[in-house]
Amino acid sequence: MYSQDDDSIDKDGNELDGECARPQKHAKSPELAREFLLDAATVIFKEQACLDSNIIFCACPSLSVTDRVLSFRLKRLSEKEQHAKMHTAYSSVLH
Q1: For the whole model, what pTM was predicted?
Q2: Alpha carbon of 55 to those of 45, 52, 70: distances in Å?
Q3: Strand, helix or coil for residue 24
């Protein structure tokens, strides 16, 4: 094993990675490593699910508002077209 004087080992016995100041921690057993990885994957999955839910939560009302605005504008455009046709027909009757 390494001695405490070795610069590549921290006070907890973890190997220090030469590229960064954070120690490389190793699980005491394969079971603990699997448990850690499962916990990490669960946290990542839950965070991603929350992000997806937030996107859906924000997107659905936005799409609903957009749908209402487009429907209103199409209705107004249709009314303007009908008004223009009636005006053209009325003008041709008068002349």
Answers
A1: 0.40
A2: 15, 5, 22
A3: strand
